Amino acid sequence: MSQSPPDRQPKTFHVKSYGCQMNVYDGERMAELLQERGMSAVSESLDADLVVLNTCHIREKAAEKVYSEIGRLAREDGTRPMIAVAGCVAQAEGAEISRRARTVDIVVGPQAYHRLPGLIDDAMAGRAAVDTDMPAASKFEALPGRTRRSGPTAFLTVQEGCDKFCTYCVVPYTRGAEVSRPWSAILDEARALVDAGAREITLIGQNVNAWTGEDEAGRKQGLDGLAYALDSIPGLARIRYTTSHPNDMTQGLIEAHRDLPSLMPFLHLPVQSGSDRILKAMNRSHTRDSYLRIIERVRAARPDIALSGDFIVGFPGETDADFEETLSIVRETRYAQCYSFKYSPRAGTPAADMDGQIPAEVMDERLKRLQAAITADQHAFNRATVGKRTTVLLERKGRYPGQLIGKSPWLQSVVVEAEGAQIGDLIEVDILSAGPNSLAGAPVAAQAA
Ligand code: 5AD
Ligand code: SF4
């Protein structure tokens, strides 16, 4: 493979994002930035002059995938695209990446990607193109406005970073401290997304419910205030938000779930473990009981709300009894869906050096049991929606002609045969049947709502 960077200005690019929804959002913003520079997107990485790998560092495999992807970026004629590594691996490893993978031309962290065009110039000129600064000025101000066409659903970053320092997690180091974007910047971007075709916006942040700001009148606002302001944007039908921390679940936000129909009845509220001993070692700063009480209040405000969570099995020191408590919090909560992971030691985090690291076989066994419990609940939740009449926002084509797939208010995928309906329509549907991962529905009337 050629070891030297390509010798002509890149005209085409391909952005590949791994990991969380914020990376998807960042990937879109980088694409817009490159388009602004006159470059155009291509769908295959080897056809691109520049490949941006927008990486994730949250668990082991995510970073390993990136290195094997870098190895595959070689063309048969011995050339290769210019390669930029962005995202959280770039932030965590910096210049070390280009030492380990010599074909990497650019390393750019999540708070510096607005400088990507300048880094391309540096790489072309043979200068070191590594930027993992966390500048005081927000990258958002340097990014172009959102004028490109949007699909029916869009992500909008409102908050970034984390001050919680859970002992297993790299996010506070890779994404930096908690920062809230200003009220007016968020509302402007939301209006632009709606003008560009979005009917649903998901507000995203590592601790999205920690968002704070001031409205036009200088009043202090939280995420609930932002949801009310978004609700008044004509054409915006649905509002979602993710990911929330239990400690930032304010009464105002809980009440917004009761009072604001456009705020979808879905809450992703990670708990990580059901054992107080492990929660303490994780530095989660909530207990099993305080978490369950929040869930109770949320359900009292919005009885049909779908709950979602994240779990880690095999955190250092986790005993069988601790794990049983995780299984029991799942049984008690009856989640609509969950993500569950084996603990992965991350260099530089406190948990990586803790005693009592759990053997792989034990983690495998616990993950299997946890996932079986979660899948059973997810199926039960889906079955409970059979017979309901609800709205579905159509997002994409299904596998067969005439089929469209959209989402219910509870974030379930719903497959419908909807003659005459189009992607982007919000239609009324009768839910006919349910599997573990999706529902089938029939439109109530042929016309779009
Ligand atoms: N190992 C395993 N899972 C982790 N998560 C975060 N850090 C780790 C880690 N070191 C999980 C948590 C978090 C989700 C985004 O990823 O469950 O909520
Ligand atoms: Fe990581 Fe904990 Fe912050 Fe979530 S709250 S991003 S798990 S440190």
Question: Describe it for me?
Answer:
The protein is α/β, with parallel strands linked by helices. It has three domains: 120 residues, Rossmann fold; 245 residues, pyruvate-formate lyase- activating enzyme (Alpha-Beta Horseshoe); 60 residues, Beta Barrel (OB fold (Dihydrolipoamide Acetyltransferase, E2P)), CATH 2.40.50.140. Helix content is 32%, strand content 22%. The chain contains 13 helices and 21 strands. It has a six-stranded parallel sheet, with helices on both faces. The protein has a five-stranded mixed β-barrel with strand order 17-18-19-21-20. Strands 7-10-13 form a three-stranded parallel sheet, sandwiched between helices. Strand 20 and strand 21 form a beta hairpin. Helix 8 runs parallel beside helix 9. The longest helix has 25 residues. The radius of gyration is 23 Å and the shape is globular. The model has no long low-confidence stretch (mean pLDDT 94). Bound molecules: 5'-deoxyadenosine and iron/sulfur cluster (SF4). The site of 5'-deoxyadenosine has 12 residues, from strand 15.
